[in-house]
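Reply to dn_fold:

You asked what the input looked like. This is it:
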Amino acid sequence: MPEMKKLRIYTAAGILFIGVLGGCSVIKPGQQAMKNNYWGNGLKTDRIYEDGVVWHWPWVGMIDYSLQWQTYRENVAILTKDELHINLSVSVTLRPIQKELPQLELEVGRDYYTSIVKPQLISITRNVFAGYKYSIISPQSPMIEDEIYHRLVKSVNGKHLEFDN
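and this is what came back:
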């Protein structure tokens, strides 16, 4: 009989140990996260957790975002005003706005680059280059870059992202 009692104690301790380990998340430096209760109230937007260890119930997950500047590069085939084809590489550097992480998660999601920024970047790049002849693209490249940047920032305004260049 005492062996059965020890077995129950060890089993309960094991389950408790697994439960405690399952309820721990580590948020890396440069990231912030929010709790998401999958079986209950959903996303908890009242508190954003910074880097470090966060304890939570095993059925509560953490949704994390990198707040570091991230650069994305795309190869774009364009057609100039004089109907010449150019293959070029464009890049954009952006990050989520720290104070607006809950809204970003609720309205856009973690796939914000692929769903919002990338289509706009490619479309705007093609539209801007379509207004220039091939011969003046090189001398006008700083002005073209500036025009693409301003159009991109304007087109994703309100999507909780900030751009560097």
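The two ends are 72 Å apart (CA to CA).
Hope that clears it up.
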